[in-house]
Every structure is written in structure tokens, then in C-alpha cells.
Amino acid sequence: xxxxxxxxxxxxxxxxxxxxxxxxxxxxxxxxxxxxxxxxxxxxxxxxxxxxxxxxxxxxxxxxxxxxxxxxxxxxxxxxxxxxxxxxxxxxxxxxxxxxxxxxxxxxxxxxxxxxxxxxxxxxxxxxxxxxxxxxxxxxxxxxxxxxxxxxxxxxxxxxxxxxxxxxxxxxxxxxxxxxxxxxxxxxxxxxxxxxxxxxxxxxxxxxxxxxxxxxxxxxxxxxxxxxxxxxxxxxxxxxxxxxxxxxxxxxxxxxxxxxxxxxxxxxxxxxxxxxxxxxxxxxxxxxxxxxxxxxxxxxxxxxxxxxxxxxxxxxxxxxxxxxxxxxxxxxxxxxxxxxxxxxxxxxxxxxxxxxxxxxxxxxxxxxxxxxxxxxxxxxxxxxxxxxxxxxxxxxxxxxxxxxxxxxxxxxxxxxxxxxxxxxxxxx
Length: 428
What we know:
Elements: E1 2-11, E2 14-22, E3 27-31, E4 36-43, E5 49-51, H1 59-64, E6 72-73, E7 79-80, E8 84-87, E9 90-93, E10 102-103, E11 116-120, E12 123-130, E13 141-150, E14 153-162, E15 171-172, E16 190-191, E17 195-198, E18 212-213, E19 225-226, H2 234-237, E20 246-248, H3 268-282, E21 288-291, E22 295-299, E23 308-313, E24 322-328, E25 332-337, E26 342-345, E27 348-351, E28 366-373, H4 376-389, H5 391-400, E29 405-410, E30 415-417
Antiparallel strand pairs: 1-2, 2-3, 3-4, 4-5, 6-15, 7-10, 8-9, 11-12, 12-13, 13-14, 16-19, 17-18, 17-20, 21-22, 22-25, 23-24, 25-28, 26-27, 28-29, 29-30
């Protein structure tokens, strides 16, 4: 795959190039404005190259004609009813740009922004930072959209990271015409979609929350249908054509053995504990302990104003045998170790914390790592990470993070503490 860069226009005095990725089979034209696909050239049935994506001829049209042609939609594609949502116990008001609803990221969505970019032999990646509070969304969001060509396919990879809980739902808004962008209507196109269900909508095209089967509706495209034969259906005329969310099949995980289950013990358990705490705080609860087994999260302090006492279990001992007792309030305690989920073969202990480089359990002399943190999900991730790093590097990582405290136990039952951890120990 190769690329070339061609001048295309200026946005607020900044140059906006056209970036062309190409290989022996196809080429795609991309714009930093909106991280957009302007054109996609593919061979038709006769082998002739044809542009199958709609695009404008100049940058001004992308700036002024808000049809989202080929653009990256964010923070959230589609509509948010009433331009508001609740997250982590808080209500957030968004900009309303479609009546009283929020559509495609608001008044100035991601498709109307100038993205930074970097080109390489593997493709082009666009970068955008959306500040906290933009369009009403919480958290600073850093988004990346990477385009690459793999044989005869255009691949789009999305990544986004936020420093707060937020909503994000990125997509590309390309309009396709397989006869070419100047090939007339798409009424003779045959469309096949593996979608068993759709999401019914109410006023303002807002989903009702129901998931309904496509059976006996013009949305049943599982066996393919010529679009022109469906568009006159009264059911579709009411929505001015196909403007529906279809639930794609094939994203269901089926276990071949009834003995196989999903374990949420990685970071999901910590996340769940944090959300339970949010619910309790919203309900006015000021003092509580959430215990999910290996994850303990305190809400405030004890009713009498004293600290909660949390015992750290001694590895390979009875559950009621502790080696330390912590006095904490409004903090999480998470432990990862080799003594709960394990088995022995020929005297060797095989536990559940696996080294991805070998596929075998880590064998670094540690048997337990405990993390104190404000959020339980952080403790989940860091207890495993610090364990995998080993004692020296694990301690180094814990000491580098604000508000994080760690306790390490090695196989000889020597105990090591990160900076500040011993302040939480109740002397007995």
C-alpha cells in the first residue's frame, strides 16, 4: 500500500490536503476535515475503476453543506432523545440540533472538525481531542480513526479514550452507490443484511428500547431484496425510506460445553462495584460496604465516624485467617493472588494469572498483590498489572501513581509495601 498527498483547500487558514491510499486493487481519498472518506475507487464487474462513495468537489461544500458525506460521526452517532442522558448518577444536557434532540454529536460534530493526521506505509491515522464539556459531554475524549487497505477491502479502526465516564459511539457516514457516485438512483441495488431484529422508534426517531424481529417487515433483508421494490412500501414511506437501526446477527457468543461460563473477575467486577456505589450514593446512602469477593469497596465511613476494618486474607490459609487489618474509608481494596483459582500438577502450582508471552502462569516469586484505590476498577487492573510486573517493577509502578497503595507478598511470605500503604495498617 502507498499514499500521496494532494492540496485540497484551507480551513480557517490551515491547509487541508487530500490523502490518497492505494494498492493494486483499489484506492481511497481521505480528508483531515471530518476524517472523511471523499472517494473510494474499486473495480466494477468489467474491471473499470469506479468511485462508489459520494463526495464533494471542494472543501467549502464540506464546511457548509451539513450532509455528513463520508465523515466520522462523534461523539455519538444517531440521536439522543431530549438532548440529555444520565451517567454515573448525574444528568448531562447536550446541545439540541434536531428539534429537542441531539443528533450526530451536536452543533459542531466530529465530522465538522479538522483532525490531525499521520501517514505511514500501513495507512493514515486521524487524531482529535474533544475537551471536557464540548457539546455537553463529560470528559476530555481523545479519538483516533485509522484507515488502511487490506487487499480489496477498506478497513476503518476506531479508538477513543476519555478521562471521565462518558458516551462515545463513532461511525463513518459514507453514502454508497455501487454504480458510481454519478450512476443515478440506487433503486436497482440489491441489499443483503444478516439482521434478525431492529429497534422500533417513536417520536423524533428515538428508539423505544424495544428490540423487535424483522419478520414480515420491509426491513427483512436476510435473503436480499432490490431496494426499489421496497421503497414504496407504506411502512417505509412513513420514515422516508430506510432510516432504521438494524441489529446485526453473528455477535452472539455460544459455548459448546455447558460447563463453560463467563468470568467477570478481570475488571468487570471492579466496574460493577463502582456502579453499585454510584447507585447507593444517588439513593442517599452514606455508609456501606460492597463485597464482591476479592473486591471490597467502602462507601464513606462507618456510621459512628470511624474507619472500616478490612482484613487481608493470608494466602493458602483459612479464609478467616488474616495477616493484616486495614482501616479505611471511601476506598477500594482489591487483591490478586495465586491461591484461590489454581491447581497443582507434579507439585507445581498453576494459577489464573497468565503470561501472554508464554501462555503459562507467571512464575516471579509473588503470591499476592493488594491494591488500595479510590475506584475498584483501578484496583482490578493494577493488582493484576503489578503482579505481572514482579516485585521491583510492580512497586515502582504503584509508587508512581497518586492515590494508589500496594501490598506485595512473595512465596516466602515476606511482605512489601508501597509508599504510604503502612499508614492504613491497624497495629495489633
